[in-house]
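Dear V.,

Thank you for sending over the compound details. I've combined the ligand you provided, zinc ion, with the protein sequence from our construct and run the structure prediction for the complex. I'm sharing the raw inputs here so there's no ambiguity about protonation or stereochemistry in the SMILES, which I know was a concern on your side last time.
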Amino acid sequence: MRCPYCSSLDNKVVDSRIGKEGDSIRRRRECLKCEGRFTTYERVEEVLPSVIKKDGRREPYDRMKILNGLKKACEKRPVSVEALEKTVADIEKSLQDKGFKEIPSTVIGEEVMGHLHNLDEVAYVRFASVYRSFKDINEFMAELKDILSSKEMKELKDG
Ligand SMILES: [Zn+2]
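Below is the predicted structure of the protein with zinc ion bound, written out as C-alpha cells.
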C-alpha cells in the first residue's frame, strides 16, 4: 500500500474493521515516513493466505467460519454481534502480523481461543472443549480450573 502523500510503502495498520458486506476489510493506515493517515479497503481473500488443514489440504481463508464458530460459542451469552465482528477483525489482524504464507488451522484455533478468552469466559470454555475435542483432558481440566477460580468467573456468577 503506497502512501497517497509521499508514496512510501512503509506503513502500519492502526485500525481494522470489517466492511458492511462482510467480505472486505477497511483499514486505517499510518505512513511510517510522513505519518500521514489513509484508509484502504481490501478483500478478505486478498488479505489472508490460505489455510492448511490438519490433513494437509489447503483451503481459502473463510471469515464466516470463524464468525460462525464465535457465534456458536457465544450463544445466549451477553456478547453483541459488534463485539464478535471486532473479535474476528482482531484475529485477522494478528494472523496477518504473523506473516505466514499459509496459515496452519491450529494457529487460527489458538488465536480464536486467545481472543475468546478475553471476550467471554464461558464462551471460551465452550469453544475450547470443542476445539480440543478433549484430546488432552488434563490440559482442558487445568484450563477450566484456572477459569473457574479466576476473578472474572466469580463476578460472572455473582452478578
Ligand atoms: Zn507518507
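A first observation: The longest helix spans residues 81-98.

Warm regards,
I. M.
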